[in-house]
Amino acid sequence: MISRLQMAAILIAWSLLSAARADEGMWLFNDPPRKLIKERYGFDLTDRWLEHLQKASVRFNSGGSGSFVSEEGLVMSNHHVGADCLQKLSDKDHDYYRDGFHAKTRAEEKRCHDLELNVLMSIENVTDRVNAVVKAEMTAEQAFLARRAIIAEIEKESLDKTGLRSDVVTLYQGGQYHLYRFKKYTDVRLVFAPEQQIAFFGGDPDNFEYPRFDLDVAFFRAYENDKPAKIEHYLKWSKAGAAENELIFVSGHPGRTSRLMTVAELEYQRDQRLPYILSRLYRMEVLLTAYSARDAENARRAKEELFGVQNSRKALNGGQAALLDANLIKSKKAAEEKLKQAVKDNPQFKDAASAWDRIEEAQKAIGQHAVRFNLLESGDAFRSTLFSIARTLVRAAQERPKPNRERLREFGESGRESLEFQLFSEEPLYDDFEQLKLADALTWMISQLGYKDPLVQQVLMGKSPQARAGELVSGTKVKDVAVRKKLYAEGKAAIDASNDPMIKLAQLVDAEARAARKIVETQNEIKQQAHAQIGKARFAVEGTSTYPDATFTLRLAYGAVKSYEENGRRIPFQTSFAGLYERAGQQKYKPPFDLPPAWVKRKGKLDLKTPYNFVSTADIIGGNSGSPVINRQSEVVGLIFDGNIYSLALDYSYTDLLARAISVHSQSIIEALRKVYDAGKLADEITKSR
Amino acid sequence: MISRLQMAAILIAWSLLSAARADEGMWLFNDPPRKLIKERYGFDLTDRWLEHLQKASVRFNSGGSGSFVSEEGLVMSNHHVGADCLQKLSDKDHDYYRDGFHAKTRAEEKRCHDLELNVLMSIENVTDRVNAVVKAEMTAEQAFLARRAIIAEIEKESLDKTGLRSDVVTLYQGGQYHLYRFKKYTDVRLVFAPEQQIAFFGGDPDNFEYPRFDLDVAFFRAYENDKPAKIEHYLKWSKAGAAENELIFVSGHPGRTSRLMTVAELEYQRDQRLPYILSRLYRMEVLLTAYSARDAENARRAKEELFGVQNSRKALNGGQAALLDANLIKSKKAAEEKLKQAVKDNPQFKDAASAWDRIEEAQKAIGQHAVRFNLLESGDAFRSTLFSIARTLVRAAQERPKPNRERLREFGESGRESLEFQLFSEEPLYDDFEQLKLADALTWMISQLGYKDPLVQQVLMGKSPQARAGELVSGTKVKDVAVRKKLYAEGKAAIDASNDPMIKLAQLVDAEARAARKIVETQNEIKQQAHAQIGKARFAVEGTSTYPDATFTLRLAYGAVKSYEENGRRIPFQTSFAGLYERAGQQKYKPPFDLPPAWVKRKGKLDLKTPYNFVSTADIIGGNSGSPVINRQSEVVGLIFDGNIYSLALDYSYTDLLARAISVHSQSIIEALRKVYDAGKLADEITKSR
Fold first, then answer.
1. What phi-psi label fits residue B498: left (phi over 0), alpha (psi between -120 and 50 degrees) or beta?
2. Does the ipTM surpass 0.85?
3. Interval B261-284: pLDDT, tens
4. What chain B residue is nearest to A321 in terms of C-alpha separation?
5. Which 182-241 residues of chain A touch chain B by CB within 8 A?
6. Looking at the structure, do residues B177 and B230 belong to the same domain, yes or no?
7. In terms of Cα–Cα distance, which of B285, B41, B232 is closest to B119?
8. pLDDT digit string (tens) for A227-251?
9. Domain count of chain B?
């Protein structure tokens, strides 16, 4: 097992050797790497194959991916993607997140409070229409508003025409705009989840390492009209799973990468954005850990959030380590210089010549307002669900009376149903936990803006963060969904008349929050225009097909199931159940290496040679969690759930030297369902189609 | 049990009600509160009584207090004060810190690697002599150097005359200078420590709460010439312990309070110093926790440091919460205004009129250089024992050839033996742990100074923090004490010729570190002069005897054993062993509420009615850990080990409304030694004198 410390040293080798690129790419379904895959693997990506996979892929609005695996609406994803629903369904007497869940009948399937699934039905390139409204003589602010207006119009038009949720997605940092149409499922029910102990076996010590032994799987079912949804495009189950070196595909929703960023943007990440976020994550991790230590019920309430904070902290720490390796920036600089030179030599790209400088300037301006933006607009100063609810109510009252074209994007007609679905969620909220987080967030705000900042003083009202958080949380009525519905329906008059302290807080900070947002949006418009120019030049110069940075929209990755060599040692491409029991034994079954009771009891029943986790070279990142791994025949051979430690640098650049995606093997899912969980019916549903 | 969240609300009441002052004060032994105690408790502090207590009190150089409790050199303190020695004596096969230790014979007593004990033998007020060298026409820098020179001279003169370690201590923020002479013990051996589980029963959840159930005690023995030291002044053991409302005294070494700070200084704490330190502590806590989770040996290596980080984080969080309560600053401001007014009306205090402004200016200047000072001079950028060693070697080579008067204070002749004792410690060091901390510290430095800072670039040498830390730790030879001794003995020529990477790093940053230190020292001189003027005015105006802020020197506190009321509930003044078993049972013996096996096995033997922990109104703070609690007859009735959550605000102002010092009861120590640990011989040694 390698320590995380050794990463950086190895990264150096990586950044020098990664020129080959290999199985790189998070490809658009409407611009897939047909030629590359044909050349490397001799496989033809047909339109039918792509359409089937696209429509079998599912996006979780809680952040993650999934896929349909039966014609009756069964959806497979990770335990940690389902965590949000598991956490919200739990109470002090039932901890499904920790203990797992199994609906033996349809009637027992439990409806998630606010889980929405999206299936991408079509993609339309609307770049020309979006760009047509932006005139050369416009200021950046005018350009941003014009672009926002046309996007709202396109989305609304599409919604009216198709009835589908319609989102215009910005790709290539502004190089292209595509209209994505989604079928929505909002009645989603929990079918099965194992114990967190086995889903996250090995806990923090083994996390981001490999070999791994995690059954990070969960099943849900999409319903329509109170009946299981009838699904045309679902994935069949592979009999054998994937062999070593076999070609596999991953279809999922990578959240965010930064590979097309300019050097100035990367340096901003390194010098400002990541230090800020990490600092905030460190304090949240300590806060949530200390709160959890107080008693079991606290631990239950904070568990999913703590898990998320820890995962982000680890991922961003890895990203920061990559950026602090001078070789990464050096190679990015070299590539940038080469492109700049090409642009300079070609009058056709005259516009692009100054693009890098414009991006740098805009990034600087964003940087100057980033703290206020993060605190007030992103809400870091008020991190609590109750504040988010109050803020949405306040803004909805302002935005909804406006013409659709002029609203803040999240209040556009096309997204209205999804927004209301979230806003009226009956998820359980806990006053003490809300207060804890809000008090800490207020303290964080003070540390960032200074105690004497006028807004800070207005927010605190002469009270300490703890006292202020206490009165806000205990005083607000927006805990009550009926109150939310009423305020939302009655709109501005009701909001203005409200004495609710959390509503008043959201009103108080709104003007400054909007001001910060406006600056960032305007500067982003400048960056997008510049990136579009650079993108055109890059395409002309490099002459190859490429893929945009990740944007939490559907992408296709591919690669091979493949072992790797670490410090002269060959790391196997897959593990087995036998390895799980060995690892637990080595660690004397001490947490986090303890096994759930069922796994101890049923050991004798299991075929211990069953492959458990495996690695592949597919290009994935956070958001891909829960993505199906399929073979040439579109059969499920695995389920993405993590990357090894080397994959933490993939945010900035792809490498297959040591970075690997880690999946649960399809066979282990079936074996565990049948032998450990007595979930033969579920296993039958999944496998019967093959 | 009250949650920490509720503190702030109660603090408000506190800051309004604390005018009474009650049992306030960390008093100087040469200026004790005779009159106050006589008035409040009818007790006469005699010179003999004071001298006896003073000479029975012991300071631990690892940070903490203790007392002699037998004529054969036996010293009592806390488990957590002894932790530094326990940790360093442990290895992968023996974890004395976790499992405890008991020397059944003198021969089994284990010598601590680098524990030095100091006993205060005399105090001399040298204020006039120190101030005489500072002339009105001097710049602040000249004044600082003149003052440092005379202090070095006084110390050296005293050392030569008495052979005792001699330190000039700055009191009242510069109002007075006292010469303290200490007898040193450097052969200190571990006699007894219980399991950390029982010393810190209840762990984080119960920490800073009360009722508590901790046996936070450890015994050491001071040796001279390889024989137990013969001690004239040691404390006898009380038969019964303290009764409710009984007068008690605490003699110990409170580390640092900020009660005499001006409002400008307090605001600096709130706005700059505490956010900086807390931010650093948060990331260290996450780092050490994640490292500890990897395996048991990691956890053992990091345990004491993690414990320390968590304790600091909690204490400073509490302090920050107090400062963010507007009422605290408001009451401080009111007091300051009153004093300013008195000064203005009295031509005698003309000098003092501008003192507050001068302090504010100087504080601002310090603030502007604080980050560089913290990183480079305090070493936050290089947090690792190996760097500290290299730095000491580099500076010793520069300083030792200078005349004593001109050296940096820590290289003065008077402290030489103590410095060498530390420098040549054989404490175990672990490469992986040193590297982990150093890499994180380098990353912290980058986040504070910026990646492009020239010094950052020189430090990193084009490598990532992880890679650079790796080569520094694996490359340095100063791990070897023989190498340290050689470099120290050979001095500047050897250091300059050295290719040791850690030595080179310490050299590289030395000029900037010294520059930052010079600024801070000069501005502190300005502050000290101003504080001295304010102090004179305050004394004249308030007309009462007072005590200086804590400085990790010996102080006398007093108070009563006293219950308190929290949310309408009476909190008992003491707990019992019966309560320990009840609390463990309530929590189902789950960590941190599990009991060591011996405590489970011996429950039947114990008198469960034995008083265990008790609270008093004595004015204590961090550094007082291990202080003896004695009665009028100078008999030990308890052992300070913590404060309740309300005591976290004592840094800034005293209150006895809810704040309480928590002690281990004398009887519980004897009962546990005899019945749980079969340490009757040790119990006999302690109690035979009574």
1. beta
2. yes
3. 999 999 999 999 999 999 999 999
4. B464
5. 203-205
6. no
7. B232
8. 999 999 999 999 999 999 999 999 9
9. 3
